[in-house]
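so my prof wants the structure for this chain in the tokens format not the other one, which i didnt know existed until like an hour ago. anyway here's the sequence
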Amino acid sequence: MNLKSTESATLQNVLRYEFHGILYFELHYIRAGAATAAGAANSADACVWTERVAAHIVYEHPKAGDRVEIERLMGMIHAVRRV
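here's what i got, hopefully its the right format
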């Protein structure tokens, strides 16, 4: 596992929720290039991935269709930025 990584993706759905008064987002996304990768229909890259993150990790007003970069540190998301 890389210590730090970045991946491009397109948001498919964004669900907003609160837990104990703290705002979170559930992000559903497809990794960039999944639709064009050879054999992508059978690969994990063609899947819709789901991540739950605190609101301070994500830019303001995320919505389906946004192209984003997801930054991870030690496998955990620490930033989601619109491209």
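also thought this was worth mentioning. Residues 8 and 30 are 9 Å apart (CA to CA).
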